[in-house]
Amino acid sequence: MTSQSQGIQQLLQAEKRAKDKLEEAKKRKEAREEAIAEIDHYRLQREKEFRNKQTNVMGSQGNLSAKIEEQTTETVRNLTSSYHKNMESMMKKLLSTICDINPEVHPNFRHAV
C-alpha cells in the first residue's frame, strides 16, 4: 500500500508541476501578447508623428516645387516666343554672312612690283 500511495504522490506532484508549467507558459504568452500590442501601439504613434512631420516638410516643398515648375514653364514659354520671333531675321543674317562674299585684297598685302 505504501508503494501505491508513493506512486499516487508522484503522480500528483507531476500533475502539479505540469499545471505550474502551463500557468507559467500562459503568463509568458500573455506577457508576449501585451508586449506585441504595446510595440504596435508605439509603432503606430511614431508613424503618425512621422507622417505629420513629413506632411509639414513635404507640404512646403510641394509649394516650392509648384513655384519652380511655374517659373520653368514661364521661362520655356518666353524662350519659345523669342525663338519664333527672331528666327527669320537671324537666318537671313547668317545666310547673308555666309553667302554674300565680297572679294577684296587684304590691307596687309604688299603688291610686289
What would your notes on this structure say?
- 87% of the residues lie in helices and 0% in strands.
- The radius of gyration is 46 Å and the shape is rod-shaped.
- It has 113 residues and is an all-alpha fold.
- The mean pLDDT is 88.
- The chain contains one helix and no strands.
- It has one helix at 2-99.
DSSP strand tally: 0
Biggest sheet layout: none
How many helical stretches? Answer: 1
- β-strand amount: under 5%
Cα-to-Cα separation, first versus last residue: 155 Å
Instruction: Look at the structure and give the mean pLDDT.
Output: 88
By secondary-structure content and strand pairing, the structural class works out as: mainly alpha
Silhouette: rod-shaped
- Report the uncertain regions: none
Instruction: Encode the helix/strand succession as letters.
Output: H
| Helix percentage range | over 70%
Q: What is the alpha-carbon Rg in Å?
A: 46 Å
Family: Belongs to the V-ATPase G subunit family.
Biased composition (Basic and acidic residues): 14-30
Protein name: V-type proton ATPase subunit G
Region (Disordered): 1-30, 54-73
